[in-house]
Amino acid sequence: MLSDKLNKFVLDQKICDSDQDNNSLFIAAINGLQQGACCSRCILRFMGCTDFSLYGPSNKILEQAFDSAFPPTSKIQVPLCSVCLGTLQFAEQDEIIGPIVNVFEKKPYDTRSYCLSFTPPISVMTRERLMYFHLQQWLQTHVPELAQKWEDIITIDSKEPMRYLVSQQFTALSDRVFEPSSPLRITVVLEHAPSSDEHLFLTSTKKQLLVVRKVRKKGITKIVGTSRPVVAEALKNLEAEEARVLTTVPPVPSSEKCTVKINTLHEAGYTGGRYLKFSRECSQTPWCVRGKKLAEISVSECIVDVLQKHHQCQAVKFTTAGREDANVRMLGTGRPFYCELVDPVRPVLPAEEYAQMEAEINESSTKDVVQVRHICPIQLKDTNLIKAGEEFKRKTYQALIWVSSSVTDEMVKKCNDFGRQGFEISQHTPVRVSQRRAMMERSKQIHELSMVKVSDKEEDARFAVITMNTQAGTYIKEFVHGDLQRSLPNMASILGVEAADLLELDVTNVDLVWPPQSN
Ligand SMILES: [Zn+2]
């Protein structure tokens, strides 16, 4: 019997010296809370009850059990609890679970666990404090010699039994498990417009416990300085007498129910791979100036849409290991990249689906511009390899260059002899980026440099193809044309000619094991 369980709970508390005193104190408290229009579940909270199974029966059954265990002297009937405003009182009804089920129909997350958090109306904080003042006074009046003892009892936060009740239901309905550490979070936001400003009386206290400011933004006036921790602190310092002067104790009942909003968010997932870019008119990310797109298409656009569709995520954040200019091709094994999947309904896909995404990208209308390789799931920790490797990665380039005098076999031999062992160059911040970057001198390592003639034809005499393996961050264009002698040595000084210039550049390799082989 539920009423027996309630009786046993009270008996077990033993906060007074005798069972009889203990009983008298609790009966007085229950009566006082009922007089204040407190629902049965909130009464359990004020009694410090952490056995959440007692909160399980419906409000009506629980109320009957209370009446039979502790017959009330008199009772007032109000439809809505003055403290929780119905949020805990009717937590098992359709108002909360219905919208959650609806959201999961639209977003059928693969993850079979979930965690649950609640944002009750802000007025519930104030109302709980005011009800406590009412209870204190009631006990002082009805059991003056025992009233002090009630201070040993800690009121349970309404979110805890609410989480218990709603998770029980959702687990049964959805066949998912409640796990506090689940990557999938459901947030239930409860709002009660009629009481949303109730805490503002705290600005009128003698010590001004709450200080607020009005801010006008985009034509809307907002009150700032009323975050929950700030209001909680103000309520803690509020005195009962002052509360009685400035507002109503116990809090006034309301007949209007709360509105419910459900937010879901899954931890980010990560998918990695390498991309190749065959065009000299394609930037890495959409490149806009004053809202106008400069390049026709970007690498990220060719990739993210397919990933977003398969993972069913809200957004995709595209990150690469370094970058090449729009007019530089990315060939060879491709450039490592990863995508952060924001709120993915399907964070990890079956193995064959990664191959399918790869095929979709590589067979799409942009297949002559961008292709991908090795698309696979990666871990958050793997993304550090791309970020941290920035300074240490080596890159291999191939470039078509122009030389101011005809390329001779001696010149080719000179370059290859010099370049075989590798060498160090000194580069000042290039003129072309000097507006964005601090001026400084850096030394960079060219690990290898080699050169071949384009052909033996007369018209090709001033052209050559160079291949070089360099330290990350080397300015290749400047190394070739010398940047007004700000890059030394440079191609002209190595070849012993007046000038050299870079015509076309390809990246042929980015030295990074990626995606990590463990995947
Ligand atoms: Zn309540």
Automatic annotation (TrEMBL):
Q: Where is the Pus10-like C-terminal domain?
A: 270-511
Where in this chain does the record put each Pus10 N-terminal eukaryotes domain?
Answer: 81-261
Question: Which GO MF terms are attached to this record?
Answer: RNA binding; tRNA pseudouridine(55) synthase activity
* Keywords of this entry: Isomerase, tRNA processing
* One BP annotation, GO: tRNA pseudouridine synthesis
- The EC number(s) given in the record are 5.4.99.25
Q: Which family does it belong to?
A: Belongs to the pseudouridine synthase Pus10 family.
Q: What is this protein called?
A: tRNA pseudouridine(55) synthase
Organism of this sequence: Hesseltinella vesiculosa
Q: What is the lineage of its organism?
A: Eukaryota, Fungi, Fungi incertae sedis, Mucoromycota, Mucoromycotina
